[in-house]
Design brief:
The chain is built from 15 helices and eleven strands. With about 325 residues, it is of the alpha/beta class. The chain has two domains: about 190 residues, 3-Layer(aba) Sandwich (D-Maltodextrin-Binding Protein, domain 2); about 110 residues, 3-Layer(aba) Sandwich (D-Maltodextrin-Binding Protein, domain 2). The strands form two sheets. The chain has a six-stranded mixed sheet with strand order 7-6-8-5-9-11, sandwiched between helices. It has a five-stranded mixed sheet with strand order 2-1-3-10-4, sandwiched between helices.
C-alpha cells in the first residue's frame, strides 16, 4: 500500500498554523531541542532518531536534538507536564493520553472508528482535520506537530479466542486508564480492569485477568505471548501516537528552522510507517512460531453494532461529533 504524502501546500499551511504569537521572523540561531520519550517499540525509537538526523541536515546544523529515551525522565503524563514547564521541548505520547488534555483527541480512542489502515492514515495525513486537533492544546503550552502509527489494538486471551461478541461476556479484560476503553469493554459485555501495563503479565499468569487488548508488541516485546493462547484481530481501536512541541520551543525557531522541523517530522513518519509494517509482520510470525499463540480473524460487524451507543452519546458534544463526521467523510465505505 502506498503511504500518503503531505503536499507542499499542506506543509506550508501546517507551518503557518503552528506559529505561536505574532511574526515568524526570527534571527537564525542555533537551537538544541530536548526530546524525551517513554518506553516504545523499536520502529518508534528508530523514527525519532531519524527525525534528529533529518532536522540537523535540513537546518544546515542550526537545529540539533538531544534525546532522553526509555522513560529516563518519567512516563508519558510526566513528560507532557515537563513540556508545559519547559523542562523538555518535544515528546511523543499516545493519542489516548492526549484525551486528558483535549476532548478532540478522545475521538481517536472511539472503537471501530476507522475502516482500516488506509482510512486511518488518510485521516492522520489530512491537515484540514489534524491542524485543529493539534492546536487544541495551544493554550496549555504545547501543540501537536505530527503522528506515528501505533498499530491496532486486538484482544489476546488466556483460554478462548474472541470470535463473537458473546465470547467477551463476563471476561476480565485489562484496559488503559481511559473512560472510553472502559465504556467499550462494558458495551461488549466484558468486565474492564484498569491496570498498569507492567502488571499485566503476572495478572494473566495468575488468572486475575482473562485477557487484555493491545498491539502485537505486547505479546512479543513484553512477552505476554508466554501466558496467553489466542490473539484475535478485531482491531477495535487504532490510536495514533502524537508528536508534541512546546510553544516556547516553537517560538525559538526561525521560519526556516520551523519548516525544517516540520519536513523532518513528515519524513520520519513515512520512515516509521514502513518500519512499523515490517515489524508487525515479523511480530505476527513470532507470535505464532515462537510463542505458539493462535491468531484468528474476526467479523467485526456485530462488535461495531454493540458499541453504537457511544456514537449516539458523542452527539452531545458538538465539537467531538464534528471531528467524527470529518473522519467518516474520508471513509472508503
Amino acid at each position: 500500500m502506498t503511504t500518503p504524502r503531505y503536499s507542499k501546500t499542506l506543509l506550508t499551511t501546517a507551518v503557518a498554523l503552528l506559529a505561536v504569537g505574532g511574526s515568524t521572523a526570527h534571527a537564525q540561531q542555533d537551537v538544541n531541542l530536548k526530546l524525551a520519550y517513554a518506553q516504545n517499540s523499536q520502529p518508534v525509537k528508530d523514527a525519532l532518531a531519524k527525525f534528529g538526523e533529518l532536522v540537523e541536515e535540513k537546518s544546515e546544523g542550526s537545529v540539533s536534538v538531544t534525546y532522553f529515551p526509555d522513560s529516563q525522565l518519567g512516563g508519558e503524563t510526566e513528560l507532557v507536564e515537563m513540556l508545559q514547564t519547559g523542562a523538555v521541548d518535544m515528546t511523543k505520547v499516545s493519542g489516548g493520553l492526549m484525551g486528558s488534555f483535549s476532548p478532540l483527541y478522545q475521538v481517536f480512542s472511539m472503537p471501530y472508528l476507522f475502516d482500516d489502515q488506509e482510512h486511518f492514515r488518510k485521516v492522520m495525513n489530512d491537515q484540514s482535520i489534524m491542524n485543529d486537533v493539534y492546536q487544541s492544546t495551544k493554550d496549555q503550552g504545547f501543540v501537536g506537530v505530527g503522528w506515528y502509527d501505533s498499530g491496532q489494538r486486538n484482544f489476546y486471551m488466556a483460554d478462548t479466542p474472541i470470535e463473537e461478541v458473546s465470547d467477551l461476556t463476563g471476561k476480565k479484560i485489562r484496559v488503559m486508564q481511559s473512560q472510553t476503553a472502559v465504556d467499550t469493554m462494558e458495551l461488549l459485555g466484558a468486565s474492564p480492569v484498569v491496570m498498569a501495563q507492567e502488571e499485566v503479565y503476572t495478572a494473566l499468569q495468575q488468572g486475575v485477568l482473562d485477557g487484555a487488548e493491545n498491539n502485537e508488541f505486547a505479546l512479543t516485546t513484553a512477552r505476554h505471548g508466554e501466558v496467553v493462547d489466542y490473539y484475535s484481530l478485531d482491531g477495535h481501536t487504532r490510536i495514533p501516537d502524537i508528536i508534541l512541541i512546546s510553544n516556547s520551543a516553537l517560538e525559538s525557531l526561525s521560519e526556516d528552522q520551523r519548516e525544517a522541523v516540520m519536513e523532518s517530522i513528515r519524513e520520519s513518519t513515512e520512515f516509521q510507517l514502513d518500519e512499523w509494517a515490517e515489524a508487525v509482520a515479523e511480530a505476527r510470525e513470532q507470535i505464532k512460531n515462537e510463542f505458539d499463540v493462535e491468531i484468528n480473524e474476526v467479523d467485526i460487524t456485530p462488535f461495531q453494532e454493540a458499541v453504537q451507543p457511544m456514537y449516539e452519546r458523542l452527539k452531545d458534544n458538538p465539537e467531538q461529533h464534528a471531528l467524527y463526521e470529518q473522519v467518516k467523510e474520508l471513509s472508503n465505505n
